[in-house]
């Protein structure tokens, strides 16, 4: 008989499943796992149970399968050039999304469940650029839907700006530097940022906002080539040919609530600039 796995091995196995995208540990129908000797070889099947009975075939609910991967990338490709060519070829936002879906060179896509492209209203006057999807974004395919995203929505609501506003004057359009979740939410690497930046630049061109917000350090690094959000925040600068306001990332605000005062000042600043134009 095989020895039972240790507690830490079971926890590792569970963490791995979460990484793969399993979101439910509970099936729709109870499963008698003691009647599944093949699944749990260390558990003796109780006498009198029929392993081929209905419980053995009971469906379990797991997250939807990942989309089929694009063709394997060719070796020795200049990935930034490949991204530039793919991005430039996109004439619409939908075409850009399709080009990113088909882009095979970013290894992050292997560990992500799906592309997280954008949310809100293309054409909105204010476009927010975040860093990279986290777990909830990877699950839903939408940027900023976890705790940090809920805070982002709460920050802009008092000045009448939201991703669902019917009026483009009051709408937000939101994307990230990277469209795939980095493993364990690690920081994006410079080569990943460089590879995906042509897509971001084209995205901004096609969405045609008046103003950009660079949310957090990674976004500042990608858009401005600078880090140091504490110094940069609150001062307008230029990125991709547009006025750009660096702001604290809402995830930082969740960890450092005292910084919300400055973040609120930046929201007011962005709203005032929209009014002024
Ligand atoms: N943080 C980001 O920068 N982007 C998201 O989409 C979610 C969290």
| Amino-to-carboxy terminus distance | 74 Å
For the report, how would you describe the main beta sheet?
Answer: 6 strands, mixed
The percentage helix is 25-40%
CATH architecture identity: 3-Layer(aba) Sandwich
Q: Write down the Rg.
A: 23 Å
CATH level 4 superfamily:
Uracil-DNA glycosylase-like domain
Structural class computed from helices and strand pairing: alpha/beta
- Total number of distinct structural domains: 1
- The overall pLDDT, averaged over residues, is 87
What is the H/E order?
A: HHHHEEHHEHEHHEEHH
Tally of DSSP helical segments: 11
Topology readout:
Blueprint: H1 7-20, H2 79-88, H3 93-102, H4 108-111, E1 119-120, E2 126-130, H5 135-140, H6 147-156, E3 172-176, H7 190-207, E4 211-215, H8 217-224, H9 229-232, E5 237-239, E6 242-247, H10 250-255, H11 260-276
Parallel strand pairs: 2-3, 2-4, 4-6
Antiparallel strand pairs: 1-3, 5-6
Helix pairs in contact: 2-7
The protein binds uracil (URA).
Residues 130-134, 137, 143-144, 146, 148-149, 176, 215, 251 line the site of uracil (URA).
Question: Which key phrases capture this entry?
Answer:
277 residues, alpha/beta, Uracil-DNA Glycosylase, subunit E, six-stranded mixed sheet, binds uracil
């Amino acid at each position: 008989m095989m020895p039972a796995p240790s507690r830490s091995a079971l926890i590792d196995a569970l963490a791995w499943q979460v990484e793969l995208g399993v979101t439910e540990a509970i099936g729709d129908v109870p499963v008698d796992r003691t009647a599944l000797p093949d699944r749990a070889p260390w558990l003796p099947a109780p006498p009198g149970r029929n392993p081929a009975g209905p419980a053995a075939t009971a469906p379990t609910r797991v997250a939807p399968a990942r989309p089929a991967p694009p063709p394997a990338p060719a070796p020795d490709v200049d990935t930034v050039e490949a991204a530039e060519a793919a991005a430039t070829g996109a004439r619409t936002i939908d075409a850009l999304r399709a080009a990113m879906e088909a882009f095979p060179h970013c290894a992050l896509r292997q560990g992500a469940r799906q592309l997280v492209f954008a949310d809100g209203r293309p054409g909105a006057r204010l476009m927010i650029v975040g860093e990279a999807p986290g777990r909830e974004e990877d699950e839903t395919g939408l940027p900023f839907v976890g705790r940090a995203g809920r805070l982002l929505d709460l920050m802009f609501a008092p000045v009448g700006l939201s991703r669902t506003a019917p009026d483009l004057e009051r709408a937000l359009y939101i994307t990230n530097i990277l469209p795939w979740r980095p493993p364990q939410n690690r920081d994006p690497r410079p080569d990943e940022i460089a590879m995906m930046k042509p897509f971001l630049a084209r995205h901004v061109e096609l969405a045609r906002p008046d103003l950009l917000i660079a949310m957090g350090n990674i976004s500042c690094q990608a858009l401005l080539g600078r880090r140091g959000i504490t110094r940069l925040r609150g001062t307008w600068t230029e990125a991709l040919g547009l006025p750009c306001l660096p702001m604290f990332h809402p995830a930082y605000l969740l960890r450092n609530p005292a910084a919300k005062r400055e973040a609120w000042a930046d929201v007011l600043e962005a709203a005032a600039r929209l009014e002024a134009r």
